[in-house]
Amino acid sequence: MVQEYQSPVRVYKHPFELIMAAYVRRFPKSHLIPVFVDSEILSETESKDGSTLVTERRCVIDIEAPRLLKRIAGVDYLYFSQKNTLNRRDRTLRIEVRNETFSNRVLVHECCNYTVHPENEDWTCFEQTASLDIKSFFGFESTAEKIAMKQYASSIKKGKEMIEYYLRELEEEGVTYIPRWSPPVVSGTAAARLQLLPCCTGRAIPVDSAKTGLDIKEPAGPTDLVAGSPDDKLDADYIRRYLGDLTPLQESCLIRLRQWLQETHKGKIPKDQHVLRFLRARDFNMDKAREFLCQSLTWRKQHKVDFLLDTWERPQLILDYYTGGWHHHDRDGRPLYILRLGQMDTKGLVRALGMEALLRQVLSINEEGLRRCEENTRVFGRPISCWTCLVDLEGLNMRHLWRPGVKALLRIIEVVEANYPETLGRLLILRAPRVFPVLWTLVSPLIDENTRKKFLVYAGNDYQDPGGLVDYIDKEVIPDFLGGDSMGDIPEGGTVPKSLYRTAEELESEENRLLTDSIYKSASIFKGAPYEMLIEITEASSVITWDFDVSKGDVIFNIYHSKRAPQPPKKDTLGAHGLTSPGAVNAQLIDRSWVLGQDYSMVEKALTCREGESVQGSHVTRWPGFYILQWRFHSSPACSASSLPRVDDVLASLQVSSHKCKIMYYTEVLGSHDFRGSMTSLESSHSGFSQLSAATTSSSQSHASSTVSR
């Protein structure tokens, strides 16, 4: 694999001619670069008017490599050829380097350019590119590649230090100005070669063309500045000021990925800070970061995320009940976001708003965070690329572990992780209750390892002790509800009124563009025609979980088990005569010929659920086989005693439209190994609900926990 390097534009705030005088002092060797053992000039060619000088050298390098590897390779030093083309008229120097040693096994090509700054002719720019292609190296290709890249990265840093060192040396000698080259009066005459001298001050020194081996040029015209303009190339000082301290190889990855985007990506190019986040998320692996970033850019374009802050208006429900907001900054200058999760009615928000609105709220928070990072970078004068999130869990209980809500949270985390990597600098979790490990077990697998390392969890009032919140946030910024001095404006939330809940039809018909399938499904239950759902269990001790709301009428909820697979429903005899029966809508899984206790069994006691109730529960399966979840119309004890429809019930349901119930439900099956960690908490969760009703059958191997909230 070919390794490539591209440097940022390094700017020296000195004229080109002075930089050249400093550059030539590194030859034939310099104590500043010990690995550069020696060099000799092989040839020099100067143009007739003296404007161009081409110098070819042979350089000797002592690579820091294991002695054993050097013995296997049979060399102590590596030899490189260097060709310097100095153009005094254009004020440019081009340096090309290729390897001579092992040239049939390894290909090294380096190209460096010194040019005049496009906006200030008294400044000099430096750029560097290189490539390394190890075809074979005695079976040590990977080792040789790592050594070469490490050595090269080290020499890059020393290169800048070397120029600055010799600039100071020139200044100490009184040389602060060297005149530009000018064409001779008469080509080839001695007077022409003395043209430089009248321009020299007493502090200036002539540059010996035989000694420089470099190229110099005058200010380029506007049409020559396109390739080197700030819009196209990154300046090293800009990187340090706005992006932070990067290694040479990290700078190279950023520049090459940015160049690739400019050449290939149609549409808006992300800002440098955002590109850098994707590189960091993939440990500066160019190929992986490029794929990661392109997927996110496609997603942003498809859903017009770039315009979200300008076009999306938060629903009033979010303004009233979403308990989060931006609040000043932490001690490091990072924007601070506070979320009072324990006070938030997550279920109410999901039921009243739907998933797309909630996801857009989270995305708008992230987009605002990116803007605030840019603003704080300008305010504090140092790179700030991420924010701090403080999550207060005071009030968190098992109601927050409502499975559809948790599943919605997991999907939101997936979207955020895929499109906003490396934006979370620190997550402070305060007042974590006992149920927090359950929630953490569910969400942590979807969170990147690097992100998980940024989590700090404080139980109870531990955050008030030394090493707590004040280590990260100034006391005058800490909200008053956490014992600080700031009168925070974070909404306190509250319970979303059920009158604001959306119907099952509304939730199902909503076009979720950011999250595909709907969490809930709806079903109608007719008198004499229950709604039944089949779940096949292949592993004993698997856990069936459910959550449903009764939006109309009263229902009876049952769970049955059968070793036999239910047969496909028989053809509806009423439908054959042009009539539609409830059974045509709700396929009956329990065959009329089945006998309770022989062909199938009831594994939990029947649970009566009234209109408006919300029911959550779970059942640990005792046997493999087929489990049937059944919702039946509830009218009177006589009607509810049997699970099989009667003829008069069916006929009555055709004539009386009120004999109909409606539910909105969600079910999920978890493997026993996935659920074991949270089983105890779920079984003891009753105190976390305002009102509840449970029907439970216990054994050493089977247990169900159901809760009802009115």
From TrEMBL:
It comes from the Eukaryota. Residues 314-490 form the CRAL-TRIO domain. SUPFAM superfamilies: CRAL/TRIO domain (SSF52087), CRAL/TRIO N-terminal domain (SSF46938), Supernatant protein factor (SPF), C-terminal domain (SSF101576). GO terms for biological process: negative regulation of RIG-I signaling pathway. Gene3D superfamilies: CRAL-TRIO lipid binding domain, GOLD domain. Residues 516-669 form the GOLD domain. InterPro entries: CRAL-TRIO_dom, CRAL-TRIO_dom_sf, CRAL/TRIO_N_dom, CRAL/TRIO_N_dom_sf, GOLD_dom, GOLD_dom_sf, PRELI/MSF1_dom, SEC14/CRAL-TRIO_domain. The lineage of its organism: Eukaryota, Metazoa, Chordata, Craniata, Vertebrata. This is SEC14-like protein 1. One of its GO terms (cellular component) is cytosol. Residues 2-175 form the PRELI/MSF1 domain. It comes from Perca fluviatilis (European perch). PANTHER family: SEC14 RELATED PROTEIN, SEC14-LIKE PROTEIN 1. GO terms for molecular function: RIG-I binding. PROSITE patterns: CRAL_TRIO, GOLD, PRELI_MSF1.
